[in-house]
Amino acid sequence: MSSVEKTGSDSGAIENRASRMREKLQKELEPVELVIEDVSYQHAGHAGMKGRTDGETHFNVKIVSKGFEGMNLVKRHRLVYDLLREELDSGLHALSIVSKTPSESPP
Questions:
Q1: In 3D, which of 30, 33, 96 has the Cα closest to residue 64?
Q2: What angle (nearest 5°) sits at the alpha carbon of residue 85, between those of residues 34 and 30?
Q3: Fewer Cβ neighbours under 10 Å: the N or C end of the chain?
Q4: Rounded Cα gap, residues 88 and 29, in angstroms
Q5: How confident is the model over 12-68, as pLDDT tens digits?
Q6: Bridging pattern class, strands 33-38 and 58-64
Q7: From start to end residue, where is composition biased (Polar residues) (predicted)?
């Protein structure tokens, strides 16, 4: 499995948002590829960042999993949002999702 985390200012934190997201997605979807990128720095000064000090508010997620087979794009995204509901309820402001099955993703 490939897993990449690109985090901002809290990359040294023991349990940052990207790590929690990775754990939840790996546990439930057993991805063959998982890339989580913290792009919060690109949104500094935006409404979603006001009053936030941790900077972990905007993420790009690419996930390739057999668990998406038979699902359309909307169902895949709903599943990811449901799995990350706790993060969304606790400060995750924006999530960009690329969700594919292994047969849809080039090697």
A1: 33
A2: 30
A3: C
A4: 18
A5: 444 698 999 999 999 999 999 999 998 886 656 555 445 544 567 889 999 999 999
A6: antiparallel
A7: 1-10
